[in-house]
Protein: Serpentine Receptor, class E (Epsilon)
Organism: Caenorhabditis elegans
Amino acid sequence: MLLIHYINLTHFQNHTEYFPYLKNYLYLEFFLYIIDTIQFSFFFWVMLCAKQFHFNFTILLGYIYCIHIMDNIANITMRLDMFFGIDDLKVYNDKIFTASMNVSIFTMASAMCILPCMIIERCFATYFVENYEKKPRKYISISLIFLLITFGTISCYFLRNASNTIYVVICLISLNALALVVTGYLKHYNKVQYNKNHAILSSVITTYSLTQRYQITENIRILRMLNLIIFYMGFMNVVLVLSVMLSGLKEITPEQQAICSVALNTAIFVYSFLLSHIISYCCEKWKRHLSATWRKIGFNSATVQVAPLCDTFGSEMNVNVTVETYFDNLKTTWNVPTTSATRQHSIVEA
């Protein structure tokens, strides 16, 4: 069975002088797991209250928070088992420890597949751009969650034999590489549609509905957020993959196992700390809800910070334009006949 988040304390206590330092590190890690669980629970509540995203994307994002909380609880359970003196020679016979380890493997495999599933959801949002906002199509998120649970369960089964680690890792790397390529294509495609939507050529505007315009804008914003997540997840995934691969080696020493565990936990802590802050940075509703929450608690800011007005692509807009000019441009746009209206008028004249 693959062992992750595991440190052989018996070996360090009997054969090295690093046992006191390592045990203090585990106490610190135990405390950080508790803080991280509280933080993720809080932002999970913010996600439910802010209602920033489409139903399907919200379900996938909520799944990330749920499995991360599950992983933290599993790791807290394993640490308690280690503190109370687990028999490292018979670690595979400890039912509590092995059950917690299986939960951790399940959540890790599911978490590394969540990004491809989010990109698949954005593919559906792009394909059904005409009415995706009006018709939730809940079967999309339900099907993707089922795939994530299935992949996590299969990974637990295959990783009972540590030699199968390399195959699971190759599968995860391939899926995330494909998701990266598709993300680039979706960003380009939605930007092209956005420019067509807002272009006025030969005094004729395109016949996009307001729903389509909104959905294209939402696609671009979410893909921009996912792009930021991809950059920092790249670091986490590289460290995680290397740690898991080394942990699956039969000849790994207790010292190497401890290094893999520390590296893996560091990557996960970095991931969990940055995820919610990146989403908050990209989502105005999250910012407003967090500000309202801090005010209710009593943390009122001495100065009010006004966020700059940004466009769909996240760039700061030039606001040196009068209200009269804005409404003049809006009136001109509405007075331009659409393609279908122009065609019907030409037929009547003929």
In short: The two ends are 79 Å apart (CA to CA). Strands lie at 200-201, 204-205. The CA atoms of residues 107 and 257 lie 20 Å apart.
